[in-house]
Amino acid sequence: MGRQPSVSGVEDGRSQLYRLADEIVACRACPRLVAWREEVAATRRASFRDEQYWGRPVTGFGDPHATIAVVGLAPAAHGANRTGRIFTGDRSGDWLFASLHRVGLANQASSTGLDDGLQLTGAWISSAVRCAPPGNKPTPEERDRCVPFLARELVALESLRVVVALGQFAYEVLTRLLGIRPRARFGHGVEALAPDGTVVICSYHPSQQNTFTGKLTEPMLDTVFARARGL
Question: Does 8 fall in a domain?
Answer without folding.
Answer: no
